[in-house]
Amino acid sequence: MTTQSRLPIPRSDWAFFLDIDGTLLDLAATPDAVEVSAGLRDCLGRLQARFAGAVALVSGRSIATIDRLFAPLVLAAAGQHGAEARAAGEYRRMAECPELRPIAAALEAFAADRPGLVVEDKGDSVAVHYRLAPRQADAAWTLARNLLADSDCLEVLPARMALDVKPRAITKGTAIEWLMGHAPFSGRIPVFAGDDVTDEDGFAAVNARGGISIGIGHREHSVAQFRVGSAASFRAWLQACAIAPDAAIQ
């Protein structure tokens, strides 16, 4: 797919689906170290008002964590790569995979005596972050693959200096499809922005709907239609969408 670097002019019938880490927020050494500025909260609030509420956060993080990060702003959301989703007063949670609990415990035990490894247990998925211990990456991947070797329910995916163990049946693509079936998203053109391998299903879903997919950074082999170099550049474009005069919106 040909990727374009100049982001499109906003349309009034868009619906925004936004990844968080590496897309809205600059990556940090640990998941808890990210910072959400007042300016970003204001931008998202303006965007929500400008596009009739059609703004959702689609993340590997849990919805509870998303709400805590962006408080007091509350947006529609899909958490844990789509294992849970919320829109129009409705909350959906996928059936729990019972295999996850012992695997999460094994990953916690593995990280316990390896300084720098951070295990993020989100309830319906679990991530191992090795940004502070890159030499442990191979061992973490080997363990995760071994733990999931006989699993029909779970899969492990690469993330930015991390691995994610999640149910096979859910993706950011399925989350966007679910959100698109609910007000205020239904009938709109989906716009999804993300930065990672776990966002590819979301890109594919919006592409299939004739929407707009935006990749952040310079990762190869992506189906994203548009590409912007950094989270800061994407935030600047999002701000322009939020404050553009009516005459500038198609």
Keywords:
250 residues, alpha/beta, Rossmann fold, Alpha-Beta Plaits, 2 domains, eight-stranded mixed β-sheet, four-stranded antiparallel β-sheet, 12 strands, globular
Give helix and strand order, one letter per element, not per position: EHEHEEEHEEHEEHEHEEH
Mean pLDDT: 93
SS-derived structural category: alpha/beta
| Spatial separation of the terminal alpha carbons | 25 Å
**DSSP strand count:** 12
Low-confidence stretches: none
Strand order of the largest sheet: 5-4-3-2-1-10-11-12
Secondary structure elements and their pairing?
Elements: E1 14-18, H1 38-50, E2 55-58, H2 63-70, E3 76-79, E4 84-87, E5 90-93, H3 100-112, E6 118-121, E7 126-129, H4 137-147, E8 154-159, E9 162-167, H5 172-180, E10 189-194, H6 200-208, E11 212-216, E12 226-228, H7 231-243
Parallel strand pairs: 1-2, 1-10, 2-3, 10-11, 11-12
Antiparallel strand pairs: 3-4, 4-5, 6-7, 7-9, 8-9
Helix pairs in contact: 1-7, 3-4, 5-6
Describe it.
30% of the residues lie in helices and 22% in strands. The protein is of the alpha/beta class and 250 residues long. The chain has two domains: 14-94 and 170-248, Rossmann fold (3-Layer(aba) Sandwich); 100-167, Alpha-Beta Plaits (2-Layer Sandwich), CATH 3.30.70.1020. The protein has an eight-stranded mixed sheet with strand order 5-4-3-2-1-10-11-12, sandwiched between helices. Helix 1 (38-50) packs across helix 7 (231-243) and helix 5 packs parallel to helix 6 (200-208). The model has no long low-confidence stretch (mean pLDDT 93).
